[in-house]
Amino acid sequence: MSEKKRRAGSDAAGPASSSKRPRASSAASYAESLRSKLRPDASILASLRSLASASSSKSRTAAKSLAEQDPSDPASSYIVVADQDSTSVTSRINRLVLAAARSILSGRGFSFAVPSRAASNQVYLPNLDRIVLLRRESARPFSSVATARKATVTARVLSLVHAVLRRGIHVTKRDLFYTDVKLFGDQSQSDAVLDDVSCMLGCTRSSLHVVASEKGVVVGRLVFADDGDRIDCTRMGVGGKAIPPNIDRVSGIESDALFILLVEKDAAFMRLAEDRFYNRFPCIILTAKGQPDVATRLFLRRLKVELKLPVLALVDSDPYGLKILSVYMCGSKNMSYDSANLTTPDIKWLGVRPSDLDKYRVPEQCRLPMTDHDIKVGKELLEEDFVKQNEGWVKELETMLRTRQKAEIQALSSFGFQYLTEVYLPLKLQQEDWI
Amino acid sequence: MDTAGDAATGGGGAVPGETKKKPPTAAAKGKSTGKGKASPKASPADKESSLLKQKSPAEFFAENKNIAGFDNPGKSLYTTMRELVENALDSAESISELPDIEITIEEITKSKFNTMIGLVDRERVDEALYDDFESAKAREKRLAKEARFQETQAKNASLGKKVKDAPAFRGKGRGEAAFFKVTCKDNGRGMPHDDIPNMLGRVLSGTKYGLRQTRGKFGLGAKMALIWSKMSTGLPIEIKSSMKGQNYISFCRLDIDIHKNVPHVHLHEKRENKNQWHGAEIQVIIEGNWATHRSKILHYMRQMAVITPYAQFLFRFLSDAADKNLTIRFARRTDIMPPVPLQTKHHPSAVDILLIKRLIAETTKQNLLQFLQHEFVNISKLHAERLIGEMGPDFSPKMTVKSLTSQQLVRIHQLFRQAKFDDPSGNCLSPAGEYNLRLGIIKELHPDMVATHASSPQVFEGHPFIVEAGISMGGKDVKQGLNIFRFANRIPLLFEQGADVITRTALKRINWSSYKINQQQDKIGVFVSIVSTKIPFKGTGKEYIGDDITEISSAVKSALKQCCLQLKSKIVKKLQARERQDRKRNLNRYIPDVARAIMETLVEIADDSPPKRPRYDKEDEELLEKVNSQEVTDKTFRDCLMQHVEQVDYEMALDYAMQSGVSEEPREAIYLNSLEGSYKFVDLQGPVFIFRFIP
Fold it and tell me: pLDDT value at position B163?
């Protein structure tokens, strides 16, 4: 490991020093001058350690407060699903199918009571700090033309899930779709009904043994077992280890990291992995390559709960970066019924923040004007409760809307490709510049 | 209408005034630039005399025949036919007779035409002299092109592609002129024997002047056709006519002296009237073009049949080629005729100074008070007195109306413009009638659905107008999208559709989709009929109504909207009915999937041995037993579901019937054409009717 560290260091020194000379612009020289502000890594690490310990003590109390609220009264008015073993899920399906069968045989057709997952039915609860699904069910009778198709698809998905559970295997959503393409027609339909079934049965989607294909990647100071195989995430090359779509396969999580770094995009993730950023500052780096999928969110939550590490986020300085952050923290509307298991509260926004653009003198040509749609999304975000809760975020968002400028993480590459890993992030960590 | 009015006013002669000079100079100009022969004949002194006003109209229209719709031979054939048809309709309606009109267009070949005029057919001697002569080079080129075409044709045929028709290789040049004999026979009033030459041989000397709703565009009628025949063939026009109760038929062969605007009678005699026939038959031989205007003529006939369902038309086209011959009968569908439009007096807000002058010249009333009271609508005696008081001190009710000075006329005109008058009533109008419009649409289009609406009379610049609209859905010979049928004063408008107020309203201002009508896919027939004492035509041809008159465009829009509203409820009902029919099929489609899904799971549950699987309640256990013993199978579920769908469908049908009621459509009276003549028949007696069988 020390070899790598040294190699990374020497590599880093080379291009950085050479890139200093040709660039004569004041912005570039200012950016380079920031490099001198950096204190030795040891002192930065010390501050990180204090953050980690603070986080572990805090998260214990935070977890407690959640535990107090979860099973409490709201359960009657909100739908909260839980992980369940396959036997109990099977028996729930059995009961539904038997009821439907008897109803058909008595000549009454059949109908399913499906919780409504319409957008109007999703609410943000400030005290839980996440989006939850209100309990409101709608009937899905076979005898109505409007719902006949959905009722059929629901029956089919129930039977498929039943078969999967009985054989004790896992399938992907794509597998499920292809078992009856003719009926489902479009994967979005079978996916939607699968979420409906989760709600009906009151279990998480992973309890149905149906998973999405792999999307997220992790790299860094993390060791865990994937279906029994030991995985060392420091030895995963530059590409990283794909986050297992089935969180049940993950066990024995160990780490000596001081924090978790959540990255919005693949490009920035690759830079961090190649520069072995996690060796200079012990951390776990993780990305979902854009909008986070269920597996990545589950994995992040699992890491946070088990390792009690602070989570720092590196996203683009635009409304979508913040939107992605919100999904990690409060959940998405589509999966609101499972928000308890999918959300990771208390993520710190490290960068790239709108205020950084001026602070680091990001050149004008690397900033983009916000489109009308961007501004609309930004204004909507200002109204969101989860943003309002954090004063710092409101200020940043207001700055963004005022300047009408956005920038991607890659904007920092204008100071050199490795500026992100060598100057920007260390300096941010040193200054404890997160909100 | 207004051109005729101008000419008549200009020729009024008795009224002195500055305005008089204008029309003669315009006419003189046209004459000097046009035919060379005309100018030497007309001496300067004639210009001031009454001769000029009779002479100029025929010449003016001969030189500007496009104004009257004689732009080219094809259009001329069309216009000739329609002028004759419209005259025939007016004639029959004026004596409240159900119109029965026969139109025959007979193609006359060149050689036949030549023999008719006594010209010997001559072979071409010097081929190169002719415009359509083909030089050797051109022929080579053409043959090569034809060969190439044939080659590709053969290739396509071998590949099984659709073979295109060979393009017609037409020689360049003007081509052969085609001649047609147009005959129109009606059962109308007929013409008094002695008046025939003047009625047909003198332009702008009609019987239809005055303020009223008329079909004709200029009052030119058959006279313009006569001018055209004179110009293109030189052959005279033949008229047969008889009036009711007349024991002879007048026969007249005449043409027109264009320069003098006087009839030139070849033959004028009385013939025997054996069948008590009354009406008129006019026969004219003109140059025309059937190929280019065939569809327009047929459209015209069809649309005329829509707007006059009480008339019977027989249309025939005859030619040497038997396959081109056509006979179409448009049957009578009702015997209710709209009333004859009444002549009305002018509305004060619609007159100009010239018109006031003319009215004064023509009036029999002595003093101003009586003049105002009797020569205009909506001016009562009291009102007239107040108006005169408002005109100023130099006006008095008792002053002689003919002594008014020009300045005083202007003052009267100004007051007419500013004062408030009641709107004219629409009593003088004769709309087609909502009922007739509806019948006409049903008769000619056989639509699936139809809605009609008649608006109340409205006013535009002192002229009352009524808008009637109909919308049909589906039908035969209707293309997808909007099919617009425009009528003005109960005649179809076929040309210059694009800028018309009706077209524009239907295309732009009606949101069809909000009435569940698909503007692209559905076969929509839009019928709008506007009647008025003055139709505000635009353009020289008077073939369309401008889109710039808010009163008319909003009336058209609201009438169409009313029709759409009526249709919407019908369409919604229809959609519901269709949905009901589809629902069974839709539901049945999913039954196998459901049965399979449920059965698969049940088998799996039943497969698990009892100790392993959790206990269920008694009924569930029984069910699982039956699954194991194969008493309940895939088929059982399918049958049960099928039954369920059947039952739900039945219940829905009951619900539907209760909501929509039993009778879906209002019943419409059928019209049976009465038989002509007497027949021998056998009576079959029924309890409530007699069935007469004609063997």
Answer: 52
pLDDT tens readout for residues B87-106: 888 888 888 889 999 999 99
| Per-state percent for chain B, helix, strand, coil, to nearest 5 | 45, 20, 35
Pair B130, B124: CB distance under 8 Å: yes
HSE-up (13 A, CA, CB side) for residue A29:
6
Chain A residues in contact with B645 (beta carbon < 8 A): 109, 143
If you average pLDDT over residues B399-428, what whole number do you get? 85
Rounded to 5 degrees, φ, ψ at A135 are -85, 105
Residue of chain B minimizing CA distance to A149 = B590
Residue A365: CA atoms inside 13 Å, Cβ hemisphere, count? 4
The one-character DSSP state at B189 is -
Closest chain A C-alpha to B599 CA, distance in angstroms:
8
Which residue of chain A comes nearest to B646, CA vs CA? Answer: A143
A308: left (phi over 0), alpha (psi -120 to 50) or beta: left
- The CA distance from B281 to B102, in Å, is 9
Task: Give yes or no for residue B206 having a pLDDT over 70.
Answer: no
3-state DSSP helix/strand/coil percent for chain A, to nearest 5? 55, 15, 25
Nearest CA in chain B to A96: B598
CA-based nearest residue to B246, from B193, B196, B184, B188: B193
How deeply is B685 buried, as exposed, middle or buried, from its count of CB atoms within 10 A (0-12, 13-18, 19+)? exposed
Known active-site residue A419:
no
Q: CB-based contacts of B602: which residues, under 8 Å, 6+ apart?
A: A97, A98, A101, B623, B624, B627, B632
Helix, strand or coil, per DSSP, at residue B253:
strand
Q: Is the peptide bond between A352 and the residue preceding it cis, with omega within 30 degrees of 0?
A: yes
Secondary structure letter of residue A233 according to DSSP: G
- Report which of residues B38 and A34 the model is more confident about: A34
Q: What is the pLDDT of residues A37-55, one digit of tens each?
A: 888 888 888 888 888 888 7
- Under 8 Å between Cβ of B464 and B429: yes
pTM (2 d.p.): 0.57
B579 in reach of chain A (CB within 8 A): yes
ipTM confidence: 0.72
In degrees and rounded to multiples of 5, residue B290 shows phi and psi of -75, -40
Alpha-carbon gap, residue B68 to B65, rounded angstroms = 5
CB atoms within 10 A of CB B320: 11
Give the whole-angstrom CA distance, residue B580 versus residue B567: 20
CB contact under 8 A, A107 and B644: yes
